[in-house]
């Protein structure tokens, strides 16, 4: 509450953060209750929620640098390593394959679970179960899981209950097969146990447990850390989780060894088959080579060709030499036909050279003798005879030499022709022979390569090294769910936010007017001259010497009214105050009566009930019957007989509305009403008119003309914000009138001063 400022209020939209915060803090007890409730709920949840532990293991894969493009290098996989990171992606799928997970389930007997029966929750018994169960045969292929309660009955017997049984039988002996609707199972009591409390046992199908492992196991590849693989699982029992990871790693390595050996065995069978075929092909090629050599009389084709070429050259040389000797023999033979000296030392045979030398000596001797004697000389005759014999002997030798040379030349020419034939056939033979040798070399290389690979494959078959090395054996990191700190903080936050969200939704969906700021934000230059609080003592009227906050608000209202009225330039010392609102129920009559009562402290005041349709003044002062309507329809001109004392103070009189008229609008527009107001101004300092709502009826429109100031009542937590638009329009329509707004029935928290109403200066006095 405050006195009117010198300047009128203007439309503003600034957020009052402090006020908004206190608007929520007024419900602090609900917020505290919500926080405590959520905190208790979080503690209960953490108490009875089974913690989930994260267990991990790390695998390392060796890396190989296989050379690409080597002939037949990819015939067999002889190593365990991976050559690329992309291959490791495939291993993440392989390690989570259903066959491997199925072997893990079977190896650890995970399709049988044991639980201790508790009052609120059941806890799984892994190694601490007193009973061991095993599924022998499954006959129902649609079987997923079924639970039974096992109770010890003594004498090595037990009872199954709370599950489907066959023929109603429920007591069985440990170690005996038990036929159930889904198949056969067997239960054994662990050694050292003589009895046990009832436990719950769940039999599940392999597929069911494999699906559960697929959902709980996570495989990741750490970035920039080489060929590493992290396998993790979240479970309630750390020992069980570590056993699962260890078994999974073991089964994966076993499966990889089996796959590698199977591949190696298939490779070995392939190599052996190829070796047999290549051996046959190689044997055929070698036989073909042998036949070709035998047919063409070849031992070493290159050496023989070279020898043939050498022999051919030598034969040509010898033929030329023999031909020269033959020509020489022929020339000497022709020379021997006359008695002339025969050339000697021509390379002929030694006997022939001897004969020629003897012949030449005899011929020279005879010629010397003929110079001294005649032809009849006995010496000459003897020499002629010897010369003739020697000539015949030389001719005979020359003819024999000629025949021998011709024979030798013929033999050499035959050899030369044979060598030329061999030389001519060599390219063809070489082409055929090289083709045979090429096939032989290829088959031999392939044969040797396969022999080498067979030995390497045999080594691979003998090696049982795992595919992946367990770098970090299975270990438990810690509890991952529930996160106690996060759940506790989350519960406290939820407990804090839930009531705030509810209050925010409540405030957001609430279209009522509560504060003065809402009026000033909706109506431009709205002048709110008072905030009337709720009357904490009850009732709608103030009392004499009332120092309550309710009474003080009307004193402020009248003080602000006087400021407004003093600013009005008029010679009339009496003021008419019109009290109206948008709709009924906003407290017009209450504000009108209490304003009039407050003004009557030192001035004469008249309160007129102009709400003819729905008069309410009788709630404050007992109605005497006749009133305004009776005066307006009468012929009299004096309204004084109808004015009655209020009984509140001597200065306050009341003119009731009188009988309910069917035409209030016509009555209020009568000139007689205006004349009545003019005469009453002479008697009363203030005339307060309680009128009808302006939004519903038009009765009040004529009263505006006679009013000096209009008090427009808006009720907190009652008036809809849409009605402020009408009030704004009403204000602008009557811009030449002094229209002031009063916020009625304001709660302390919605007022400008909150719970500090009165500043502590006021108290009730008896």
What does the model show?
- This protein has helices at residues 17-25, 28-48, 85-95, 98-108, 206-216, 238-296, 301-335, 350-370, 378-462, 484-509, 516-522, 549-566, 588-599, 628-633, 664-668, 671-681, 703-706, 722-733, and strands at 52-60, 112-116, 123-125, 131-138, 145-154, 157-161, 171-173, 177-180, 183-189, 199-204, 217-220, 228-235, 469-481, 528-533, 575-581, 605-609, 644-645, 652-655, 686-690, 709-715, 739-746.
- The two termini are 24 Å apart.
- The strands form four sheets. The protein has an eight-stranded mixed β-sheet with strand order 14-21-20-15-19-16-18-17, sandwiched between helices.
- The protein is built from 18 helices and 21 strands.
- With 766 residues, the protein is an alpha/beta fold.
Which helices and strands appear, and what pairs or packs with what?
Blueprint: H1 17-25, H2 28-48, E1 52-60, H3 85-95, H4 98-108, E2 112-116, E3 123-125, E4 131-138, E5 145-154, E6 157-161, E7 171-173, E8 177-180, E9 183-189, E10 199-204, H5 206-216, E11 217-220, E12 228-235, H6 238-296, H7 301-335, H8 350-370, H9 378-462, E13 469-481, H10 484-509, H11 516-522, E14 528-533, H12 549-566, E15 575-581, H13 588-599, E16 605-609, H14 628-633, E17 644-645, E18 652-655, H15 664-668, H16 671-681, E19 686-690, H17 703-706, E20 709-715, H18 722-733, E21 739-746
Parallel strand pairs: 14-21, 15-19, 15-20, 16-18, 16-19, 20-21
Antiparallel strand pairs: 1-12, 1-13, 2-3, 2-10, 4-9, 5-6, 5-10, 6-7, 8-9, 11-12, 17-18
């Amino acid at each position: 509450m405050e006195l009117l400022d010198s300047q009128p209020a203007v439309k503003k939209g600034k957020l009052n953060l402090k006020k908004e915060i206190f608007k929520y803090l007024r419900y602090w007890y609900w917020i505290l209750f919500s926080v405590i409730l959520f905190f208790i709920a979080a503690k209960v949840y953490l108490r009875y929620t089974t913690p989930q532990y994260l267990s991990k293991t790390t695998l390392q894969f060796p890396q190989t640098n296989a050379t690409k493009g080597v002939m037949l290098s990819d015939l067999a996989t002889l190593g365990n390593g991976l050559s690329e990171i992309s291959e490791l992606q495939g291993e993440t799928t392989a390690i989570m394959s259903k066959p491997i997970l199925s072997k893990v389930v079977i190896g650890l007997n995970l399709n049988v679970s044991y639980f201790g029966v508790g009052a609120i929750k059941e806890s799984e018994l892994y190694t601490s179960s007193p009973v061991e169960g095993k599924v022998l045969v499954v006959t129902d292929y649609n079987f997923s899981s079924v639970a039974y309660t096992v109770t010890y009955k003594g004498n090595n017997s037990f009872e199954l209950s709370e599950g489907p049984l066959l023929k109603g039988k429920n007591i069985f002996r440990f170690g005996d097969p038990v036929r159930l609707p889904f198949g056969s199972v067997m239960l054994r009591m662990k050694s050292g146990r003589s009895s046990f409390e009832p436990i719950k046992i769940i039999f599940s199908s392999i597929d069911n447990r494999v699906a559960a492992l697929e959902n709980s196991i996570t495989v990741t590849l750490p970035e920039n850390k080489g060929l590493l693989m992290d396998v993790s699982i979240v479970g309630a029992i750390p020992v069980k989780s570590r056993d699962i990871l260890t078994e999974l790693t073991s089964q994966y390595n076993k499966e990889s060894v089996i796959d590698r050996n199977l591949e190696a065995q298939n490779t070995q069978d392939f190599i052996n088959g190829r070796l047999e075929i290549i051996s046959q092909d190689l044997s055929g090629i070698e036989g073909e080579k042998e036949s070709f050599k035998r047919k063409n009389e070849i031992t070493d084709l290159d050496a023989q060709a070279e020898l043939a070429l050498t022999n051919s050259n030598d034969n040509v040389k010898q033929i030329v030499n023999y031909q020269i000797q033959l020509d020489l023999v022929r020339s000497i033979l022709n020379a021997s036909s006359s008695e002339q000296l025969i050339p000697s030392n021509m390379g002929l045979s030694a006997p022939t050279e001897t004969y020629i030398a003897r012949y030449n000596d005899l011929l020279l001797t005879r010629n010397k003798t003929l110079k001294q004697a005649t032809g009849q000389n006995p010496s000459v005759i003897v020499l002629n005879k010897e010369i003739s014999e020697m000539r015949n002997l030389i001719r005979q030798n020359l003819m024999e030499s000629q025949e021998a040379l011709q024979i030798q030349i013929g033999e050499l020419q035959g050899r030369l022709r044979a060598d030329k034939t061999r030389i001519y056939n060599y390219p063809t033979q070489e082409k055929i022979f090289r083709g045979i040798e090429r096939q032989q070399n290829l088959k031999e290389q392939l044969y040797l390569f396969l022999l080498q690979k067979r030995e390497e494959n045999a080594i691979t078959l003998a090696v049982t090294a795992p595919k992946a090395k367990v770098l970090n054996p299975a270990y438990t990191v810690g509890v991952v769910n529930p996160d106690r700190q996060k759940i506790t903080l989350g519960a406290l936050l939820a407990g804090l936010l839930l009531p705030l969200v509810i209050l925010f939704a409540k405030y957001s969906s609430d279209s009522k007017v509560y504060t003065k700021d809402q009026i000033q934000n909706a109506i431009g230059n709205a002048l709110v001259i008072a905030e009337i609080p709720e009357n904490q003592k009850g009732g709608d009227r103030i009392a004499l010497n009332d120092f309550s906050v309710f009474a003080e608000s009307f004193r402020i209202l009248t003080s602000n009214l006087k400021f407004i009225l003093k600013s009005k330039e008029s010679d009339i010392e009496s003021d008419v105050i019109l009290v109206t609102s948008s709709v009924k129920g906003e407290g017009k009559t209450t504000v009108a009566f209490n304003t009039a009562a407050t003004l009557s402290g030192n001035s004469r005041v008249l309160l007129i009930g102009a709400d003819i349709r729905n008069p309410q003044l009788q709630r404050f002062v007992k109605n005497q019957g006749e009133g305004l309507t009776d005066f307006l329809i009468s012929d009299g001109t004096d309204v004084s007989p109808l004015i009655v004392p209020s009984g509140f103070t001597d200065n306050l009189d009341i003119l009731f509305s009188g009988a309910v008229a069917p035409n209030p609008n016509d009555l209020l527009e009568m000139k007689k009403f205006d004349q009545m107001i003019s005469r009453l101004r002479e008697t009363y300092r203030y005339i307060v008119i309680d009128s009808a709502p302006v939004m519903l009826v038009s009765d009040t429109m004529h009263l505006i003309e006679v009013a000096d100031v209009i008090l427009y009542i808006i009720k907190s937590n009652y008036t809809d914000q849409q009605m402020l638009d009408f009030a704004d329009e009403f204000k602008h329509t009557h811009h030449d009138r002094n229209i002031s707004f009063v916020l009625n029935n304001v709660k302390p928290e919605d007022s400008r001063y909150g719970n500090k109403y009165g500043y502590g200066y006021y108290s009730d006095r008896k």
